[in-house]
Amino acid sequence: MKFYFRLRLRILSRQLAELGWWRGLLLAPVLVAAIGNGLVGLARHETGQWVVPPLLLLLVLSQHRRRADLDFLHLSAPGFRPWLAVEYALWSGPAVLVLLRFGRVGAALLTLVLGPLAAWVPAARTQATTRHGRSVFRSEAFEWVSGFRQAGLWVGWLALVLAAGWWRPYPVAPALALGAWVLLLTALYA
Q: Domain residue spans in the chain?
């Protein structure tokens, strides 16, 4: 297990180096505060405490199915699933501690049991096809971007947003800005 955790530490440190330590330094307090606030809110609630175990299971499950090293683990250590279960139990530890802090022993035990079960779920299959169906949103977004580039419409959009923000106390101003925007788009694409 020591070698596995050393490998995971190397992978995480390499990912941190690629992402940049300053981004992690900026985002970590925000994420910790948001997740902690959500956990405390759920742990205080009598029925909300039971949302934590399935929520944590779904989070761990989604991360497990997208792991890039599952094929490597199959080849290098065929009995790797108990090690993964220990890792997932350690990752669910903070949620268990928050639940125990508020006296929610049943939900904490369920969280401790459900999280590691994700280790036995098979990995997600990769899509064999490279051809994807047409996306209406994607084609519309490309149309809008090309229209913005052709006519310099982004300047008009920015002017309308600034005007709506400037006259925000008047409820008619944002509606008029939206109407002008629709007229500009209609003139461009009609």
A: 2-120, 136-189
Which whole-number Å values give the CA distances from 37 to 20, 25, 34, 60, 100, in the listed order?
26, 19, 5, 19, 15
Query: By three-state DSSP, how is residue 102 classified?
Result: coil
**What percentage of the chain's residues is helix, strand, coil (to nearest 5)?**
80, 0, 20
Planar angle of CA 107, 112, 113, nearest 5 degrees: 100
Alpha helices (H) in 45-167, listed in sequence order: 52-65, 70-76, 81-91, 93-101, 105-114, 136-151, 153-166
- CB of 44 closer than 8 Å to CB of 102: yes
How confident is the chain (190 residues) per 10-residue block, as mean pLDDT?
Answer: 80 82 79 89 91 93 85 82 91 94 95 93 72 59 58 72 79 79 67
Tokens of 52: 């934590």
